Amino acid sequence: MNYVLLFMLLLPVKLLMKLKPNKQARNLVIQTAKIGDFINITPLLRHLERSDALLSRSVAPLAQHDETLAEIFYIEDHKGSTLSKLKLAFKLMNRYENIYLLHPDSLNLFYAALCNADNKQFLSTYRRKWYQSVFYATADGVVEHSKTTLTLESYLQLADRSLHKESYAKHATLPLYQPKHPPSELFRQDGIKIGLSISAGNQAKTIPATVWKKVFERLNALPCLFYIFGTAGELIHLKRLYEVVERTDNIVDMTGKMALEELPYAIAQMDFYIASDSGNVYIADAQNVPIILIYGPCGVEEQRPTGDVLLIGPDHIAPSSFIFQAPYQFAYPAEQLFALDQRKLDDIYDFICARKPPLQEKKTSF
């Protein structure tokens, strides 16, 4: 509500500035969410060809290696005070021809509404508040997004209502960033390489170690190499995994060994990727790696990998976590949300068997 009052106070200034056009760039894309959401806007970035962006600093390592992006502003750099927010608002106000608002929280709506662009396209979601109507009144077009609408398509349709999920490919970095000294274990050829994310940014979406144990046991007949990806801060989850499974040389610890911008290259070396709904799943999807998504409480109609994917969800539990409404606690325990019965375990086994590569053939996946 405070941003509405601030906008009303600045409205005369906005109208006065409109008389002095000073367009320096064509497009501004506003999406201040995390890794998975960033990757799902890359088809739109490809369509627009070249854009400035207002992003979260959490995606900076990827965004800085994206040739579709020109100048990047990070929302965290301007949240310190009202003055810093106003400085960014005035910097953006008369600069763009087109504004595409993909993450419509109140602050982003405030920035987008103050802009004097010729064409402003806003996403409207199920979290929209009545008082935000004053911001939406400044838009030239609005795309209505629901819990059963694919976010990737909603994002694309801000630019062109005829676009759909097959219109453009995703990417994590463009071109693919290649590490100078990638870890040698990425290139092992003695097994089926399966990447895993054993935790998630939202800890409530973390798959329990006991569930991973069942996956390992079901795949025991196959020559699998399990690559554990994560930050150094996620080592606690690896420790919990080792409490229920034996340490063996087919579990490859990659936690803390690669920077975020290096992950797309590393994940591209995998034959499969298994995880809950997390950023690495979307990196794998962008690299055309087959994915097994154990989605737990998440609404997969709204956001999911769109490539070769096996979707595995809970029995008789409705989704309760959505892109614009993601709680950090759920009514059901993780052991129930991510439970794998024999049928689901067999589905995982069959999915891998149908796609597993010849072990001695060098993998080229990008």
Determine the strand fraction and express it as a percent band. Answer: 15-25%
CATH superfamily of the largest domain: Glycogen Phosphorylase B
Helix content class: 25-40%
Overall domain count = 2
- Biggest sheet character: 6 strands, parallel
CATH class of the largest domain: Alpha Beta
Which stretches of 5+ consecutive residues score pLDDT under 50? 360-366
Q: How far is it from the N-terminal to the C-terminal residue, by CA?
A: 47 Å
Helix and strand string, N-terminal first?
HEHEHEHEHEHEHEHEHEHEHEEHH
What is the radius of gyration?
Answer: 22 Å
Structural class: alpha/beta
Q: Could you name the CATH topology of the largest domain?
A: Rossmann fold
What's the number of extended β-strand segments? 12
The side-by-side strand order for the widest beta sheet comes to 3-2-1-4-5-6
CATH architecture label name of the largest domain: 3-Layer(aba) Sandwich
Number of helices: 13
Q: Which overall shape is indicated by the principal axes computed on the Cα atoms?
A: elongated
Q: pLDDT average, as an integer?
A: 94
List keywords for this structure.
single chain, alpha/beta, Rossmann fold, 2 domains, 6-stranded parallel beta sheet, 12 strands, 31% helix
Helix/strand layout:
Blueprint: H1 2-17, E1 25-31, H2 35-48, E2 51-55, H3 60-63, E3 69-74, H4 82-93, E4 96-101, H5 106-114, E5 119-124, H6 133-136, E6 141-144, H7 151-157, E7 192-197, H8 209-218, E8 224-229, H9 235-242, E9 251-253, H10 263-268, E10 272-275, H11 279-286, E11 291-294, E12 309-312, H12 334-337, H13 342-353
Parallel strand pairs: 1-2, 1-4, 2-3, 4-5, 5-6, 7-8, 7-10, 8-9, 10-11, 11-12
Helix pairs in contact: 1-5, 2-7, 2-11, 4-5, 8-9
